[in-house]
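User: I'm preparing a small set of examples for a lab meeting where we compare how different chains pack in three dimensions. I only have the primary sequence for this one, and I'd like the structure in token form so I can line it up with the others. Please keep the answer compact; I'll paste it straight into my notes.
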Amino acid sequence: MNHSRKMMIVAFVAISLIGAGCAKKKVAIKTPPPPTAPASVSVTKPAPAPASAAAPAAVVSPSATPAPHYPSAATRARIDELLAKIEDAYFDYDKATIRPDAMKALEADSTELKQILVQYPDYKLTIEGHCDERGSAEYNLGLGDRRAGVAKDYLVQIGIPVDQLAVVSYGKERPVCSEHDEACWQKNRRVHIVARATLAQP
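Assistant: Understood. Below is the structure token output for the 202-residue chain.
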């Protein structure tokens, strides 16, 4: 074997060995460095929107002081005085018809009384119906109620508000006279008007 051929074989073997070594050599993979945290970015919060001008407070006008529902003590005293002037209205035996003299009694001073009452709608009057002693208690209760009812209707006609008038019948239970004769019985057949007591009055 000549010298140049030997040299070629040696060179070939050397190249083969180098190539095999290279094939088995692990290639170190360079791990990329972890990403660096971005520089902190200062986040500027948007400035709050300027507060809208507060709606102007509703102007509350002081409410007008309501008129009192009940009259003053002085006015109530005047009402009592007027009621005292209004004489009881009297009725015939077993009747509930208003006689002319009863109308006059009911109408006396009623104009001023009406003018006062309309200003105080919560102030009430009670019309009491009374009878003489004759007849049963049950019958006289009914008769006294009818008498009070016709007196109420008459007072409404002359202008006193119906809502301010109440009726009650006492029949023969509250006589103003205890004699057993016609003169006394006539005094007991009547209607009588009073101011209705109420706890709500000042």
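A couple of notes for your slides: The chain has a mean pLDDT of 76. The CA atoms of residues 15 and 21 lie 10 Å apart.

User: Perfect, thanks.
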